[in-house]
Design goal:
It catalyses: dTDP-4-dehydro-6-deoxy-alpha-D-glucose = dTDP-4-dehydro-beta-L-rhamnose. The chain is mainly beta. The protein is built from two helices and twelve strands, in the order E-E-E-H-E-E-E-E-E-E-E-E-E-H. The chain has helices spanning about 20-25, 155-160, and strands at about 1-5, 10, 15, 35-40, 50-55, 60-70, 70-75, 90-95, 100-105, 105-115, 120-125, 135. The chain binds dTDP-4-keto-6-deoxyglucose (T46). DTDP-4-keto-6-deoxyglucose binds next to strand 4, strand 5 and strand 10.
């Protein structure tokens, strides 16, 4: 995983920044072609979304940016055979810090809003493929994500996601990623 610190080019009018550049990413050894861009809005502080991923052949890179408000963004390593399998890591993303998170294939992604009225932008390297959708429970004690706030909103689907030990299958890191276009 990588935190991307985007440059804000400011002047008297405000600022400008580059949200995505595959040339710059390639320069940092990160490979990404955009297949889909998603935008989510969460009204309440404490909203929990996740932990989501897609199985091969639609496993995907995600680059997540917080355009409004502030979140704790979390990823869990689900790659079969990984030394950090089942471990989570978190980064605070906000409109203020203007950082993005690069999440490679094989990681589940989720977040909790730390303010009301949060908007997120997702860049995906694979299209939404319902047959490849996967998820792991964000409240699984075995993973032990330390969410900072009491959960105020969570979808029934996310509440019912399997725990780590009940995942139907792991994600083979060398399996095909985004389907051929
Ligand atoms: C991703 C997607 C979803 N949908 C449908 C499926 C559901 O009926 C509805 C909301 O999807 P979902 O409940 O998965 O939305 P979130 O819980 O906000 O999931 C999102 O937030 C978590 C943290 C992520 O990492 C996911 O990539 C991202 O999809 O939109 C579509 O129609 N097209 C799409 O591309």
């Amino acid at each position: 995983m990588m935190r991307i610190d985007k440059r804000k080019l400011g002047d008297a009018r405000g600022h400008f920044s580059r949200l995505f550049c595959n040339q710059e990413l390639a320069g940092a050894g990160l490979d990404m072609e955009i297949a889909q861009i998603n935008h989510s809005y969460s009204a309440r502080k404490g909203t929990l979304r996740g932990m989501h991923f897609q199985y091969p052949p639609a496993s995907e890179v995600k680059i997540v940016s917080c355009l409004r408000g502030r979140i704790l963004d979390v990823a869990v390593d689900l790659r079969e055979g990984s030394d950090s399998f089942g471990r989570w890591t978190a980064v605070e993303l906000s409109a203020e810090n203007w950082c993005s998170l690069y999440i490679p294939p094989g990681f589940a992604h989720g977040f909790q809003t730390l303010e009301p009225d949060v908007e997120l932008l997702y860049l995906h390297s694979a299209p939404y493929t319902p047959d490849c959708e996967g998820g792991v429970n964000p409240l699984d004690d075995e993973i032990g994500i330390k969410w900072p706030l009491d959960v105020t909103e969570i979808s029934p689907r996310d509440q019912a996601l399997p725990t780590l030990r009940n995942l139907p299958r792991k994600i083979s890191p060398d399996a095909a990623t985004a389907p051929p276009r």
